[in-house]
Amino acid sequence: MRRLARARLVAVGLAVAALAAVAGCGGGGTGTPAAAGAGRADGGSVPAQLRFDAATVDGGRISGASLAGRPAVLWFWAPWCPICHGEAPDIARAQKKFGDKVQFVGVAGLGTVPEMRKFVADTGLGAFPHAVDDNGRLWSSFGVDEQPALAFVTADGEVRTLQGLLSEAELNMYTEQLVTS
Fold first, then answer.
1. Peptide bond connecting 148 to the previous residue in cis, omega within 30 degrees of 0
2. How would you write the pLDDT of the chain (181 residues) with one tens digit per residue?
3. Could you state, in order of their start, the residue ranges of all structural domains in the chain?
4. What gap in Å lies between CA 73 and CA 108, rounded to an integer?
C-alpha cells in the first residue's frame, strides 16, 4: 500500500513539474526582469553568478570565471521549447554581429544532452559554447525560472537577467549597451 501511495505521489510530482516547465516556455512576456544588479557577492573579481563549471553540449567544459572581465550574454533555453527555436536565429545573428566584442554562451536545461545537441545542430548555434544545466543550479543562480531568458553581464560584473522573448531589436540594444558600457 505504501509503495502504491509513494508511486502516485511521485507521478503527481512529475506531472506538476512537467506542467510548470511547459508553462514556463516564454510565459512571462517580453523581457520581464528576473534579477538585476551587482553580480559580485564578496567584492571579488568574479561575479557570484559566474562561479560555475559545467559540461558543454559538445562534450567540453566551460568555466564561468573565464567570462569575468569582459561582456557576456548568456541565453537560457530548452531543446523542446518552440519559443527558443523561434528566437535562435536572432541569437545567431547577434552572436555574429557582436561575437568579437561579447562572449555568447547558451545555457541548456530541461532536456537530455542528445536533445540539446540536436537543437544546437538544427538551429545553427554551434559558433559558441552551450553549458548543460541538468540540475537547474545555473538557471537558478541567474534567477531564471522560464525559458527563453537572457543574462547580460558587463565587463565589471553587473548582471541583468531578462526572462521571456526579446525582439531582435531589444536583443541588439541590450548587447550594444554591453559594448559601450
1. yes
2. 444 333 343 333 333 333 334 344 554 444 434 443 344 444 457 778 899 999 999 999 999 999 989 999 999 999 999 999 999 999 999 999 999 999 999 999 999 999 999 999 999 999 999 999 999 999 999 999 989 999 999 998 899 999 999 999 999 999 999 998 7
3. 2-180
4. 14
Residue type, 39: G
- Do residues 150 and 142 make contact, with C-beta atoms less than 8 angstroms apart? no
- Residue for cell digits 560555475? 52
C-alpha span between 62 and 156 (Å, rounded): 20
pTM above 0.85?
no
Place of cell 570565471: 65
Residue 23 sits at φ, ψ, to 5 deg, of: -65, -30
Q: Environment class of residue 97 by beta-carbon count within 10 Å: exposed (0-12), middle (13-18) or buried (19+)?
A: middle
Topology of the domain comprising 2-180: Glutaredoxin (3.40.30)
